[in-house]
UniProtKB/TrEMBL annotation:
<dbReference type="Pfam" id="PF13400">
    <property type="entry name" value="Tad"/>
</dbReference>
<dbReference type="InterPro" id="IPR036465">
    <property type="entry name" value="vWFA_dom_sf"/>
</dbReference>
<dbReference type="InterPro" id="IPR002035">
    <property type="entry name" value="VWF_A"/>
</dbReference>
<protein>
    <recommendedName>
        <fullName>VWFA domain-containing protein</fullName>
    </recommendedName>
</protein>
<dbReference type="Pfam" id="PF00092">
    <property type="entry name" value="VWA"/>
</dbReference>
<feature type="domain" description="VWFA">
    <location>
        <begin position="140"/>
        <end position="398"/>
    </location>
</feature>
<dbReference type="InterPro" id="IPR028087">
    <property type="entry name" value="Tad_N"/>
</dbReference>
Amino acid sequence: MSLLSRFRKDASGTTAVLFGFVAIPMIGIAGACVDYARASSARASLNAAVDAAALMVARDATKLTDAQLTTRAEALIRANLAGNSDAKLGTYTVAINRTARTVNVTATTDVETTLTKVIGFDTIPVSSTAQSAWGTNRVELALVLDNTGSMAASNKLTELKKASLDLLKIMKEASTEPDQIRVSVVPFATQVRLPTTYKDSPWLRYDLTKGSGWNKKTITKATWEGCISDRDKPYDVSDAGAVTGQNVTLYPADFCAQSTLTPIRPLTSDWTALEGTINAMTPVGYTNVTIGAAWGAASLSPIAPLPEAAPANTPRLTKYMILLTDGDNTQNRFGDGQATMDLRTAAACTSAKDAGIRIYSIRVIDGNSSLLRSCASDPGMYYEVSNASQLGPIFQQIAREISQIRLTM
């Protein structure tokens, strides 16, 4: 009885027994942390793989059958998961809707657990879904390019032509259907220029003069060579003020201050014509950034003087402007000083952005950096170029940003 009493009262070894009871849950919890981190890594890999597959299917949807697209999507997902041993492709679906022009890609994987198995969880399920669209996103882009005399220096115009042609090539290759991407080219100096076939347009006026006394001349349809100067203020900075027939709203035909200025190419997907306009650009005259920005916006507007653009509220349409200059404002129709001209340029940029146009601005070696930075739609859309050879990579980057197919969810 004494022995039994001592055994009943003996508490030695209790800690070991209690630890035995709690050890399994503790190991399970610790294992869950490790396995959750592995599952998170697998999810990131799966997300990236599914996103890439959705974009690939959207890009090639017009070229391949549904079966071919499904096979390629599976192969791409497996290839992107190959570097993560925890992310092995389980089930997957590729749903292609050719009426809505969308694709949905869904994939799953089960991450095998390690220590978490001791609490009854053998796997952690992971899934990912992505949707993308093709042929529905549309782009209208205005290339507003400084063609002033200073562009002849430091190889600037030569490099600008190369960069612009590269941009057009990227845009052309990204376009999967007619008129999906359209581009206008607006060469500017003190004035802009149009083909003389516009001479009878009701939005033009013929009342500007040059010379004085017996040598005073007034512009006429017969003597007009296509050059246009700033509209009367406040219409000089905006395309929002529609032409009403009142003289103040009309565009003033003028004598050419720069007779070799290349004419504007209105919005088009005729890539050969666009390339021809770029190749024809020549450096001449002084700088008036305002008129360039105003006509860039006009080329993206569906109203006169250049009505080729689609309405701003067209579904899946984004309008862009690339505004490039290599110098300060120096001359406009009103004889304003640089400070006043800069205010007009800022107003023109604001007006374009208010109209829904996203602006990239580029300063080539010289020019008012703060003005051009403020013209850009956000800081990442402003570029400083210290050497003209940098234009090529910048234009290629912008072209890819504009033309790439984007995930829709």
